[in-house]
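Reminder to self: tokens first, then the designed residues, so the page reads top to bottom the way the pipeline ran.
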């Protein structure tokens, strides 16, 4: 079985916890992604921010994305997977927490991101199909951590 490290996109880009959400949105646009890890000044993962978080938890609430920071949306313990874990564990974690991408850590350091597509290419189709069905459920995930 492949390790997550072998599937992940290395060198994930973070938005700093003190950066405004407008900067997170620009970075998402430039990278062509819908979510970013939030990293602290110590380069440790503080959470995730999604484009949906910015719209629903900031803009729709009448807040200013140029003054609200990414760290203000981080809540709870981030959902992660260890770089040396088997790829199956990433798939199970995605299904359990209804997320499509996971920050990959080694020790306490963010070392990459792994997506459903990454694990789908490496695992048997029946396992992947079950995960896709689980993640696509109508239950709302905690998007600040998803």
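Designed residues (146 positions):
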């Amino acid at each position: 079985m492949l390790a997550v490290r072998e599937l992940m996109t290395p060198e994930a880009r973070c938005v700093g916890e003190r950066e405004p959400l407008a900067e997170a949105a620009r970075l998402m646009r430039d990278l062509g992604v819908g979510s970013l890890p939030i990293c602290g000044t110590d380069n440790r993962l503080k959470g995730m921010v999604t484009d949906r978080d910015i719209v629903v938890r900031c803009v729709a609430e009448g807040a200013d994305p140029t003054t609200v920071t990414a760290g203000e949306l981080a809540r709870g313990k981030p959902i992660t997977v260890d770089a040396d874990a088997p790829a199956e564990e990433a798939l199970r974690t995605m299904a359990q927490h209804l997320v499509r991408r996971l920050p990959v850590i080694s020790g306490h350091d963010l070392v990459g991101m792994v997506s459903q597509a990454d694990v789908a290419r490496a695992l048997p189709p029946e396992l992947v199909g079950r995960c896709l069905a689980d993640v696509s459920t109508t239950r709302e995930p905690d998007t600040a951590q998803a």
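The two ends are 25 Å apart (CA to CA).
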